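Class prep. Write one:
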Amino acid sequence: MPLRRLPNPYNRDMRGWSIPLGRWMGVELRIHVFFPLLLFVFFAISASDGWPRGLGLFILLVAAVITREIARLLVAAWLGLRLRAILMLPIGGLFAYANPESQEAASQGPGQFALVLAGPVANGVTALALAATILGAASGIRIYEHPLISPVHLLRSMVWMQAFLGLLHLLPAYPLDCGRLIRSSFARKHGYAPAGRAAAGLGQALALIFMLGGMPLHNPWLVLAGFFIMIGAQIEDQGVFFQSVVDTVRMREVMLTDFATLSPSDTLADALIRCVHSLQEDFPVVRGPQLVGIVSRQRIVDALRTEGNGYIQSVMSRAFQVARPEDTLGATIRRLTAGRGLALIPVTESGKVVGIVSVQNLMSSMSLLAEQRRIERQEASE
C-alpha cells in the first residue's frame, strides 16, 4: 500500500504560476513564470548597449541565485531535511518540505540559523572571491564605480550581483532569510499562523517601499527587488493561511461518515464486489465493533490475481493508527506522513469507527475548507 502524497499548500501555489524544470536528487524544481520574463526587462534596460549585454546581465542574476540555492541545498542535506519542491524566484528559492518534521527543523534550533546564513554567506564569499580575482587579473577595473550593476560593465556587475542578493536577504522582510528568523521568534510567543501573517505583511510593506522608492530614484533594481519580494510574500501568506486551516480544523469536520467496512471473514471475491459499488480506495476491517485492520482496493485486486480467492484477514494490514473526532487535521496529517504505507486513518469514538480520513478525501477537503475559510475572512473584513 504505497503512501500517496498529501496536499501541500506550497505545491499548490507553486504549480499555479510556475514552470516545471524536472527533478534533481528527488526534489521537484520549478521556476516562477516571471523569472524568465525578466529577461525582456533586462533587454529593455540594456537597449542602448545591445541585447547580448542584457542577456549577460540576466545570466549573472541566474548565477547568483544558483550559488545561493546550492549552498542552501547542501545545508539542508547536511541537516537531514527532506525537500519536496523548490520554487525559483529572482530573489532566491522557496522550499516546500516533504514532511512536517523537516518543516519544523528548518524553522527552529541550529538548523534554522544554518539555513538562514547559508545563502548570504555563499553570495558574500563568491562576491569577495570574484572581486579578488578580477582585481588581481586586471587592476584597472574600478569595482566601486557607479552604477555598481550595469550591462555596460559585466565584470563589475558580476561581483555586485552576488553581493546585492546576499545583502538583500539580511533585510527583516519575509520571505527573505532575516525575515524568517523574525517570524520564528514571533511564532514562539504568538503561534505559527499569526507570526506568518505578520511576517508576510511586513515583507509586503517593505516590498512596496522598495517599488515606490525605486521609481523616483530611477533605480530599476530596487523596483524589481520589491516586486519579487511582494510575490514571495504573497505565496508565503497563502501557505500560512492554508496551514492555519490545517491546525484549526477538527476531524469531525472533514471525516467521511458514509463509508463501507469489510470483515476479516469476507472473501476477496465478495470484497471486490463491495469495491465495485464504493468510491473508497481503502476500507476499515472490523470484527463486530472492533477495528482489526485496513485493506486497500488495489491490495484485494493484486491478491486475487496472484493468489486466487482467499480471506480479507490474510491480506489486510494490521499496522494502523486511529484518530479521535476532536483531533486536529494537522495532527492526523502528521500521522499519515509518519506511517509507512499508511493511506487511511479511521476515526473512532468509544471504540467504534465513526468516520474515516484518507489521503484521497483530504486532497479535496483541505482545498474546500481553505476556500471556505478565505471567504469567511473576506466577509469578516468587509
User: Anything to note?
Assistant: Confidence is low (pLDDT under 50) at residues 1-14. The first strand starts at residue 18 and ends at 24. Residues 109-137 form the longest helix (29 residues).
